[in-house]
Amino acid sequence: MKTILVIEDENAIRSNIVKMLNHSGFQAVPAENGVKGVHLARSLMPDLILCDILMPEMDGYGVLSSLRQSDDTVTIPFIFLSAKADRTDHRQGMNLGADDYLTKPFSVQELLAAINARLEKQTEVAQPYISQIKQAAEALGSFAHFDPLTNLPNRIVLHHRLQAAIQASQETQQTVAVFYLSLSQLNAINDTFGHSTGDLLIQEVAERLRLHTDDSHTIARLGGLDFAIVVTNATTKNELAQQAQQFLAAIAEPYFISGNRLTVQAQIGIAYFPKHGDSVNQLLTRAAQAKNQPEATAGYYFYNLAMEAADVTRRMLKADLERGLQQMQFQLHYQPQVSLLAGRIIGVEAFVRWQHPQKGLLYPKDFVALAEETGFIQQLGVWVLQTACTQVQMWRSLSPLPLPIAVNISSYQFKKKALFESVRQVLAETKLNPRLLILELAIDELMADLDYACETLSLLQTLGVGIHIDNFGKTAFSLEALRRLPIHGIKIAQSLIMGVPHDSELTDITKAIIRIAQTFKLRVMACGVETQEQLTFLQEHGCYAMQGFLHMKPVPAPEFKQLLQVDKERHQV
To answer: Could you give the residue ranges of the DSSP H alpha helices within 449-491?
Structure first.
């Protein structure tokens, strides 16, 4: 049934038209003035509008002009009703976009003929698009259930099939397992060879998974680098382990794409019904938890109850985060950065700590990931910046040289547009010289989206702050990225320094990083220096500065103040 909106200020005329239309098989909706008519048109989206011209508050021309300015109502057929018969009035209405014009008085036949003509024309205009809409709907239905890149089932299909497998297993007593599989090294491949190559690699991985499964499996792509496999034909833990090993071995074989030989690794977490959960969400969540276990040295790991206890602890810490900041439970510890030429303090890095009332002193590894999950890291990050900049201002008199302070920026903060404004506001409030603030970011975060990283770092540099790459050498990087990124220095990862000078491979990598930094005119600092041998090696190979337990571990502000006083006295001329 077609809906027709009747906008007419005279009650008798409006009532007669509504009755006439309802009797003729339409659904007529009355509106006693132009303002109400516009409101009803936008909310009801009628098939056609009949509108008087001469009305108080808003006349018919105003109604038509308002509706033609909105994308939602611009195509609704519109017929003017008026006692005015002047051709100028007709032309004004047509210029505004009216479809027809009926002069009062008019007969029932004239009104119905005008309405039917407009509706038929609207149908003729829309008809060519109907088949396209149907095709689009079918395509959307396919996209709603299958991943467009791999043509594998998506999370929705996985949910239904896993639920069906759980219900069937309750009768057959057969194990239903979920493998949660994530690829690694793919981001580096995307950065080096381009995302088109990465997409082809994902398609190849999907095909290899298909070749190692049968009709009793369901393979789904969960998005990004993650896949899930439902296994229903294994009865023992050993059989599940063997299947996981087969998947990992198949994925680890080299790929030859666009003339390049590529390799990729995977990690698998395994959870099975009913031991590890009795619902789809529980099994998927617990398989994902198992996949992230550091103990998964073989590439796969089974969920266990200890993970659940750890998960409970994590949830409790999440709830405590915001209260911790409100109750001033967070604090900063400071570690000196020492020149390898002069042997004196040339900078300081701030490290956040959480003095939890029940769990004692917690380190970033215990709560930063949780803070990122909840978004609390934004609030905490601003507090760290504010506190660090305020503190280094208080130490100005204790250091004859400018004392830059380094603050780590989390991946969550870096992805938010608010970072620039947060840094700008903290510098303004603390009145710290921008050159004394160093923002440190992880290389993998910058490599994830190089264009965004260059744009954001360039914007931050307009404030005058320094930019350093933290943990350099821990993950893959591109020399092209290093050339493009607007940075001032790099910090060699502790995992490399630990092998210096006895591990020849790590020693060579460290030497190469120092040479690369010097080539790009970047200051290079070593993290985690703990032995005199490491220090001597770094000095011999031109490293600019170091920080680590060999000099001092991160300490609270009062202890660092004493260290500055000693350093100042020691180097006074």
So the answer is: 450-461, 479-484
Planar angle of CA 295, 513, 411, nearest 5 degrees: 55
Nearest residue to 330 via CA among 387, 374, 409: 387
- 3 state SS of 458: helix
* Residue matched to tokens 């995307």: 190
Nearest to 48 by CA among 71, 21, 84, 15: 21
278: left (phi over 0), alpha (psi -120 to 50) or beta: alpha
134 burial type by CB count under 10 A (0-12 exposed, 13-18 middle, 19+ buried): exposed
SS3 per-residue string spanning 112-154: HHHHHHHHHHHHHHHHHHHHHHHHHHHHHHHHHHECCCCCCEC
- Of 340, 386, 388, whose CA–CA distance to 532 is shortest? 340
For residues 267 and 251, the answer to whether their CB atoms sit within 8 Å is no
Query: 21-62: per-residue pLDDT in tens?
Result: 999 999 999 999 999 999 999 989 999 999 999 898 899 999
Please give the DSSP secondary-structure letter assigned to residue 232: -
Q: Are residues 217 and 230 in contact, defined by beta-carbon separation less than 8 angstroms?
A: yes
Give residue-wise pLDDT tens across range 361-388: 999 988 888 888 788 899 999 999 999 9
Q: Which helix (H) or strand (E) holds 161?
A: helix 155-172
> Which residues contact residue 109 at a Cβ distance below 8 angstroms, ignoring those fewer than 6 apart?
none
Section 78-105 average pLDDT: 80
Distance, CA of 541 to CA of 389 (rounded, Å): 33
DSSP letters for 435-449:
GGEEEEEEHHHHHHT
For residue 112, what are the contacts with CB-CB under 8 A and spacing of at least 6?
24
Cβ atoms of 403 and 436 within 8 Å: the answer is yes
Which pLDDT score, from 0 to 100, does residue 470 have?
92
Angle subtended at Cα 140 by Cα 138 and Cα 142, rounded to the nearest 5 degrees: 75
Rounded to whole angstroms, the Cα distance separating 328 from 387 reads 12
| Dist. CA 461–CA 388, nearest whole Å | 19
DSSP class per residue in 66-116: HHHTSTTTTTS-EEEEES---HHHHHHHHHHT-SEEEESS--HHHHHHHHH
Q: Which residues contact 425 (CB under 8 A, 6 or more apart)?
A: none
Q: Which residue has the tokens 């060579």?
A: 508
Q: What is the pTM for the complete model shown?
A: 0.55
pLDDT in tens, 209-236: 999 888 778 999 998 889 999 988 777 8
Q: Residue 573 has what pLDDT? A: 45
